[in-house]
Amino acid sequence: MDYVGLYPVWYEPGIGSGWIVGLIATVHVLFSHTAVGAALFFAYLAHTAYRRDQPELLDFIKRYGLFLLVFSYVLGSITGPGIWYSTTVASPRGISALIHSFVWKWATEWVFFVIEVVGVYMIIYLVGKVDRATHLRISVIFGLASYGTMLIIIGILSFMMWPGKPEWFTEGGYLNGFYGANTFAQLALRTAFMFTMTAVVGGIVAGAIKDTAFKREITRKLALLGMASAVIGGLLFQWYMATLPETAEVIAQNRLPEWFSLSLVVALSVIFAWFAATWLRPGLLTPALASAMTLVVLVFGLWPEETARESLRKPYVAGQYVYSNQVIARDVPGLGIRSEIPLLERQGFQHSQVFVPQRLKTVTAENAAEVGHSLALTTCSNCHSLSDTGMRPLAGYFGGNRDVAEIQVYLQGALVTGNTLYMPHIPLNDAEAFALASFIAGMNRTSPLHPEPRRVAVNATAATPVTQSQE
Amino acid sequence: MEAAMLQALRDPAGVPSHPVIFLVLGVLTWALHIAAVQVMLGASALTLFGAFKQDAHWRRLAAAMLNTAKVAVSVAIVLGVAPLLFVQVIYDPFWYTSNVLSARWVIAFIVLLIGGYLALYAFYYRNPDMRAASTRGAWHLVLSIVLMLVVGWIMHVLSVQMLLPEQWMQWYAPAGHIDPSGQQLHAYHPARFAFFILLSGAVTGLWLLGYRRYLMGREDGHPAEDPTYIAWLKPLALNLALAGGVLALAAGAVWMLSLPEKMAWFATSAWMGAALVALLAAVSFPRLLGARLDTGLWGYAPFALGAVALIVVAAAREALRFITLLAAHGYDALDYKLNLDWYSTVLFFVTFAVLGGVVLGYLLTVAWKAGQTKGVYVPSPGLTRLGQVGVLLLVVWIVQYFAVGFYVWAR
Lengths: 471, 411
Description:
The complex is a heterodimer.
Chain A: H1 17-52, H2 55-71, H3 75-90, H4 92-125, H5 132-161, H6 167-171, H7 174-178, H8 181-206, H9 212-242, H10 246-254, H11 259-280, H12 287-312, E1 316-318, E2 322-323, H13 341-347, H14 349-352, H15 368-379, H16 404-414, H17 430-446
Chain B: H1 3-9, H2 19-51, H3 56-90, H4 92-101, H5 103-126, H6 138-161, H7 168-172, H8 190-216, H9 227-257, H10 270-289, H11 301-329, H12 342-372, H13 381-410
Helix pairs in contact in B: 2-3, 2-6, 2-8, 2-11, 3-4, 3-5, 5-6, 8-9, 8-11, 9-10, 10-11, 12-13
């Protein structure tokens, strides 16, 4: 017997494991991008402070740096590995694919990260304790090392969407996977927006400055940084979208919620207006208002962006070869990777998996619903909640249909063929399709999403999703 | 769990360098990580003890240890990233399964660690100078220590669970019914956990000797210079190292006596013997040094030897894992499929050894010297040149990133 390397499944019925990963990733982006932008901003401020003999700028570096010690270097440094931990339990083969291709890249990032952490303490606590040239040099080292961490992670994030070069599939090689148009477009985009975040979060510190003249100077510096980076970031977004795979464009047009684009435009406009207002009236800037703006960035800017990034790479979770449900979807000759679809077609899911109890290996009339539950956990739950809450509840896609035969026909038409956009190829055999249909029918009987039974217009050749989409 | 199943769980992409490199790096970086964890725990405990004392020396030590603990948490987290990375590379079937089976606790780990770290900062903000004012909000520090111990316990459980593949199915599907909640911590070994926690007493004692030597090295007339404090530290450090060592070895003995059958070989192995000798040497070394502790750089030697002992302990811990999984489950971590990638391998080692060595060498030397200097510290021309080379290396690294990237993109 051959096996596919699917791990046990963790399923969180409340909000779904996917959203937990999304929440941690989103807040980490805020903490980490703010830190990288601030590191470069500090280098600029230190340079200005020593050139113009303005020691109060060093005082601002110290204050903002102390704030960042908690904001970015406590919360950020924990949520960073936190993304690893959360993806480890929610999508083990997704993170494993990235780790095994880019372990040395992550190890290299770690070197920069160590320098960054040492640097942030030194830039804060050595103000006035070392000569100016030394402090400035430490600031430059801190800024460059910090940006180095972003340079590295961007290539890995781009690979998640799709490998940099198509040759990666045939030749392998870290360089082919890491570098491509999307890498540089995403780097430019995130570089711009990291300065926006630095400016927004910096307002929390600048808002507390008592000296009116100094507050005006810092506020205006932050406002200019924020306005320029927001506008440039908005323009770069077009470049970024142009570097996505064709499937992502179709998904963007058909699957992203209507409020997505509106949310980004509104968030950018509000941020720009906020900076314009504080540039004109620096007295407006208070820690409370700056904190509120930080929340706006988080909720209306970063959350839609991160969820869209997750949606656009569907049905894959990494490198266009690992499905969201963890199955290896295609051959990658460059690394000697074989698609698991043929094995699943030959043996079925239940007989191919390591973590299936013996009593659920074979479908019977008695255990069909329970086997279906097992299959739903494996093949669906990574993207579809099996309860009524959370990410894209599965019950919502079947219009309350309770007819096992009809659901089975749909599953075999839409999923077994692998012809449905956005959905993975799920090669269920007849017995397994029946089992999964039994589970879904049972779920529909109990789901408050559909108190009244409805029939779905199922087409035997259903290559298109059912119409009752939640999205 | 059959060997074929474990093999199937391996990542099909293979590894980009020989697995032994990841094995060795995992041992070295885990040793550094656990050293930072133990200093953090010991420093926090000393701060808590000092928080309830009125004695001036204890207040000063508590203030210093509070700062030490704050930085040690940062260092522990940063250094912990590396072994976390390497364990996923060659032990992925075990690490991922163990994590998924206790997934809620893995997520809780993140939240609790944030809580513990923030509680430490909260205590610091309420007690910015413990020498000058009485302690406020000690419960923050108690909470921090408790949460740090809980997150340590979670890591301990994950490390134990990965060694027990024969029980995984029973945990995932008790009586054949799948439980995907990940809400249980399934396996633990309290004596093993106690060994590593109690060892923090010994490590912190050795750390205090280094701290004492650092204070002795300050320039004459440094405002913080106080010979009575330096003299007071010595017996405290020596006793702490000894007591921590004895307690840890006692816990270690219980651990060895209670090993599961398939790991029982470890109790009488050369690995265990080497770890025992290294720990005994590290704990007794400062007493053997006697008066020489106060001369030259000898004051730093006990902590250096302690670090070496921790590397030996880390190697023994790795041997326990490697050999158990090989002998009992047929999993050879060193026969992982190889997809050699020279570029990323060489880039890492050059970045680590050259760039990291120069830049961190510069930064840590400046920090060290600045702390020992009265007034403003001005580095020597040689040290300044090292810093300039560090900046240059960073610029060169970034330039090569874009040069190689644009070439690959345009190819």
